[in-house]
Amino acid sequence: MRRQNKEFVSPDLRRRSEALGSAISAARIARNMSRQDFSERASISPSTLMRIERGDVSVNFLAWLQALERAGLLGLLEPLSLPQADVVGESKRKAEARKRPRRSKVKDDPYDF
């Protein structure tokens, strides 16, 4: 029996996934493509496309990416891949960065390799 992920997602996540699904649907309609044509070009099934357009979070990530790519929206995710986009992570990296280099070891014996 399949688990319903809708029970385990936050309202914010549900709202955002529905908005993203609506954007994919709007892009498909703007390109005057049927669900059948769009899903074939995105290499997903029409039923998976319907679930994506509804914002179903249980659809695997690859299917979402394929739909975003076919809709021409995949580029919107590019800023997320930049480390600077993660403000908290960037501040932690800066705080944990070494302040100055370590002192190099002084060799006692000039003939020791």
TrEMBL record:
Q: Which organism is it from?
A: Paraburkholderia phenazinium
The HTH cro/C1-type domain is annotated at: 24-55
- Pfam families referenced in this protein's UniProt entry, alphabetically: HTH_3
Q: Which PROSITE patterns match?
A: HTH_CROC1 (PS50943)
Q: Enumerate the InterPro entries for this protein.
A: Cro/C1-type_HTH, Lambda_DNA-bd_dom_sf
> In which residue ranges is the amino acid composition biased (Basic residues)?
95-105
Q: Which SUPFAM superfamilies match?
A: lambda repressor-like DNA-binding domains
Which Gene3D superfamilies did the record assign?
lambda repressor-like DNA-binding domains
- The name under which this protein is listed is Helix-turn-helix domain-containing protein
- Region annotation (Disordered) ranges: 88-113
> Which top-level group of life is the source organism from?
Bacteria
Give the molecular function GO annotations: DNA binding
